[in-house]
Automatic annotation (TrEMBL), chains A, B:
NCBIfam families: lactose_RbsR (NF047341). GO terms for molecular function: DNA-binding transcription factor activity; transcription cis-regulatory region binding. Residues 5-60 form the HTH lacI-type domain. This is Sugar-binding domain protein. It comes from the Bacteria. The lineage of its organism: Bacteria, Bacillati, Bacillota, Bacilli, Lactobacillales. Keywords: DNA-binding, Repressor, Transcription, Transcription regulation. Residues 3-50 form the HTH cro/C1-type domain. CDD domains: HTH_LacI.
Length: 336, 336
């Protein structure tokens, strides 16, 4: 086996001291001849020398790492969110340690500990399943700042906020305006805070119009395409004119189930989703939904956690990102 | 700021020596009383003590990390592939360092160096854009074993193989059997080896039936939904009866473009894809495609690289995974 190229190997080949190499590679190259600087950089490339990170991070007590925990990297919402984080992290010389918990609490806990073990400087945790005070306890005791999305924090902290309640309101107003009064909702069995807020906003608007949505019109399933598909039958029981799927993945699953039930969207039944994943523009009919700025949410989360890492005592900051209703083809106007 | 809980803190609280704590937490607990062992574990949980990983990994010169580089974590094929890697890694006490290069060569190179800096024990690189000998050079010089998928390796090495040539053959035979002779292919502008093999298998079968597919019937685009959508117009120029999309994402993009062109699938035009991402079962009509065992491919890649990390001198191993054609609704039998 080849051994890792060391700074000594490089110095020997360049015929200079280890100190010289170290200073040049750390950007302190003004005290050396242009020729030497060039030679050292050239040899670094040729020999593939990479400074040893663990030695560095032990000195700094920092891995220049942000631990990122999401429930499901298969959901395009989260893969865009991750790309937003990645882009800011990279610009700042950090890398994200990405973990998908697959909605499994044991895995979530395992990855939380791994992030600490690997000296993550901070953490971003999206849609945690674990009890938030459990997470808070572990991370606080290890002095690791963190940022939660989709869950209420234990104490004050930095926040990336999108107004989920308002998103629910927008959809409800839109459906009512199109004449829909008999509506079914398909949501998660164990909804996180953001989902609860969406639903509350939605129900409040219906109630304010004197229209009520009974408990049996709220169907619980998993937040996936398959979850939506499986929920179809129950969602159709009360013969709704429209269905509100709490995320787009569920809506895509309902599309299939409704097609198999021999009904047409939107002629026989209307559907709205939530998230605006790219797929919503490709399905037929295209899906009316709430656009969430997933990439920007990732960027903001990364920026806030980096600022917090650099200054633990700075005042808490809250970033609020706008959402909007994107009208496409999946809702029929049934006002006669 | 709270400081990271140390082993000394824990020992003090447990009223035992640091050595005792260390041995108990390393599983050497048979020399201590049950009460002591229980107390130490209990306090570890309560205090959130996590052993310092960088110190450990400096001693072992191992980060118990597998660097994983994929072009696009938004493609469900790769997110399943990653979950396969994750599952094997976790069972073996490793974690994957996941990097998405977004098909950007500079980013790919950056992440390659980051993996080395962070003492990755091995790497799995899927669909690399960079020159393979460049990758080989950097990783070899740093003594890091790696496994490539979708590209030919520079020298002999471990392999996870699916027979892409055969996949192309299966699709061609299927289309010909359904009466399709005028076919357009939509592929990547810079195809990796696996895509080239798919295409060659496909073209060879057509040629063996005395049917030729001219160069202008091969449309180049990006391997994404948007790429497929943009390619639609050109794909329809020669008035094909069927289109072979080199991956399912392209096929989904074509679905939209074809719908907007006022044509129906499969009545007016048939489509086949490649990968069998979960979406293929949800679109209407469901997509006929080649099933790739993406999760198992990730598992096999992780198993092979872990074996290689543990024994550099073991004989090279090649794992071949089966593919199959999944017949759904997107191809019409046009034999009269």
């Amino acid at each position: 086996m080849t051994k890792k190229v060391t700074i000594t190997d490089l110095a020997k080949r360049a015929n200079v001291s280890v100190t010289t190499v170290s200073q040049i590679l750390n950007g302190k190259d003004d005290r050396f001849s242009e020729k030497t600087v060039k030679k050292v950089h050239q040899l670094q490339k040729e020999m593939g020398y990479v400074p040893d990170f663990n030695a560095q991070s032990l000195i700094r007590r920092s891995g220049r790492t942000i631990g990122v925990l999401v429930p499901n990297i298969n959901n395009p919402f989260f893969s865009h969110f991750l790309r937003g984080i990645e882009s800011v992290a990279m610009d700042n010389g950090y890398i994200p340690l990405i973990f998908g918990s697959n909605n499994n609490q044991k895995l979530e806990s395992y990855y939380l500990f791994e992030s600490i073990r690997r000296a993550a400087d901070g953490m971003i945790i999206a849609s945690a399943i674990s009890d938030v005070s459990y997470i808070d306890n572990i991370l606080n005791q290890n002095g690791i700042p963190y940022l939660l999305t989709d869950q209420a924090p234990v104490a004050d902290g930095d926040q990336v906020d999108v107004n989920n309640y308002h998103g629910g309101e927008l959809l409800a107003n839109y459906l009512i305006q199109k004449g829909h009064q008999r509506v079914t909702v398909v949501t998660d069995q164990h909804p996180t805070l953001n989902l609860k807020q969406r639903l509350t906003g939605f129900l409040d608007v219906f109630r304010s119009h004197g229209l009520s949505i009974a408990d049996e019109q709220i169907v619980e399933t998993e937040l996936t395409k398959l979850g939506g598909y499986h929920a179809t039958k129950q969602a159709l029981v009360h013969n709704p004119t429209a269905i509100f799927a709490l995320n787009d993945e569920i809506a895509i699953g309902l599309y299939r189930g409704i097609h198999e039930a021999g009904l047409r969207i939107p002629d026989d039944i209307s559907i709205v989703g939530y998230d605006d994943i790219d797929l919503t523009e490709y399905v037929t009919p295209t899906l009316t939904t709430i656009h969430q700025p997933s990439f920007e949410m990732g960027e903001s989360a990364a920026k806030l956690i980096l600022k917090r890492i650099q200054d633990r005592d700075r005042p808490f900051q809250s970033v609020s990102l706008p959402i909007e209703l994107v009208e496409r083809e999946s809702v029929k106007n049934i006002n006669s």
